[in-house]
Amino acid sequence: MEKKATIVLVVLLALLAVSITYLKLSTSTMTTIENKKVLCDNKAEYEEVEQIVYDGMTMNQLAEKLDKSLNSAVKGKGYLFAEYSLEVGVDPYLAVAIMLHETGCKWNCSYLAVKCNNYGGQKGSPSCNGGSYKAYETQEEGIKGYITNLYNNYISKGLVTTKQINKKYASNPNWYKSIDKYINEIKSK
User: Fold this and answer.
1) CA-to-CA distance for 123 and 168, rounded, in angstroms?
2) Helix (H) or strand (E) holding 58
3) Domain coverage including residue 103
4) Residues 59 and 143 in one domain
């Protein structure tokens, strides 16, 4: 009888070990690698996973949304606006909205934007055609210069809403209403 009990116990332990092994193999744990890849422990395969970066969207989705509002010389620059705005701490909708309002790039970009790569009306040197407005070597430098200026002179000083920015930025007390309209238009696309 003792021998039968030992055999039954061995069989039960073997079945338990098989069940545990099966359970371990059937449950896969996920490990995030560099915030972009997922490794399944029981499978040697990777899957691309895009990170949510802003307003429930991935960087590519945000860039596509911004691109829907960008025309003329800035057409297709949504990724640059999205990435750099988030990098320096500026709301990408705000950055694009002000740029569209100030340069006319909703339709056709201004001379200052097209010829001098100045997308924010920054003053300084080197001069754009002898005037007081700054010229940038490349479009990317101009867009980044504008966003950096927006951060340094407004956002970093606690002026984060269009109404707060309006008080320092524009003499027109209703400027913020135009920017809010652009922001809502960008968000709706």
Assistant:
1) 16
2) strand 57-58
3) 53-188
4) yes
- Same domain for 182 and 107: yes
Helix (H) or strand (E) run with residue 112 in it: helix 111-116
Contact, 99 vs 90, CB < 8 A? no
Q: Which distant-in-sequence residues (6+ apart) come within 8 Å of 125 by Cβ?
A: 134
Q: Are residues 132 and 106 in the same domain?
A: yes
Inter-helix orientation angle 162-169/175-188, to 10°: 140
Same domain, 64 and 147: yes
pTM of the model: 0.75
**What is the count of structural domains for the chain?**
2
Measured distance CA(12)–CA(18) in Å, rounded? 10
Same domain flag for 90 and 42:
no
Strands (DSSP E) found in 49-137: 52-54, 57-58
Structure tokens given for 11: 């069989």
Q: What is the pLDDT of residues 76-118, one digit of tens each?
A: 999 999 999 999 999 999 999 999 999 999 999 999 999 999 9
